[in-house]
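quick one, 117 residues, struct below
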Amino acid sequence: QVQLVESGGGLVQPGGSLRLSCAASGRDFSIYHMGWYRQAPGKQRELVAHSASNGYINYVDSVKGRFTISRDNAKNTAYLQMNSLKPEDTAVYYCNARLPVQAFGSWGQGTQVTVSS
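---
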């Protein structure tokens, strides 16, 4: 089972940017669907961005035009570039790696993103 480690979170002012990284162990990273999720206090975890193994990418409407998901299969790493950050983006961000045949996949430990002045 793949293991994931997120990094890159922190405190940023509204309008600022952060880039999150998700490093995966193991082999065959390219065949995994990669997703970035977030969970704010008192709210359910939600899918933010998804990069399928076939290259298809989708985003939740609230981040379209501001966030970009990417992956470097040679480095076994997925990224989430977050621009024009808003206070409502504050949450713990998690990455998920899932084989197409799996229902749930593997989760990282999460990284805190706080957007505040």
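The two ends are 40 Å apart (CA to CA).
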